[in-house]
Amino acid sequence: MRKLILGAALAAVAAPVPALADPPPWAPAHGRRAHEEAARQQYYRGDSYAGPTWQGRDGRTYCRRSNGTTGLIVGAGAGALLGRAIDTHGSRTTGTVLGAAAGALLGREATRKVRCN
């Protein structure tokens, strides 16, 4: 009985199992992936680098905008350095904090402004 169970366990481990991975992107699409690609081509104009606009399911054109996170971080860093350099009295904490806040607001607004065609 022990040999039977051990043999069945070894056979189960050695049995080939098909891979459940998606095919590479250059392979022809069939089934679910073909449906998703057709839907994406129907609702979007071009690829994501072609422009900041896309067409929704209702037929209206929408504008894709950045949320401004990169500008916020870069602006805060630059503003903190500038505020620290300007404030030369005391511990310079006030100038650093105010410069970081002003730089963050300016950087965020600068990166959020996107013109949609």
TrEMBL record:
<keyword id="KW-0732">Signal</keyword>
<feature type="signal peptide">
    <location>
        <begin position="1"/>
        <end position="21"/>
    </location>
</feature>
<dbReference type="InterPro" id="IPR008816">
    <property type="entry name" value="Gly_zipper_2TM_dom"/>
</dbReference>
<keyword id="KW-0449">Lipoprotein</keyword>
<dbReference type="Pfam" id="PF05433">
    <property type="entry name" value="Rick_17kDa_Anti"/>
</dbReference>
<feature type="domain" description="Glycine zipper 2TM">
    <location>
        <begin position="71"/>
        <end position="110"/>
    </location>
</feature>
<comment type="similarity">
    <text>Belongs to the rickettsiale 17 kDa surface antigen family.</text>
</comment>
<protein>
    <recommendedName>
        <fullName>17 kDa surface antigen</fullName>
    </recommendedName>
</protein>
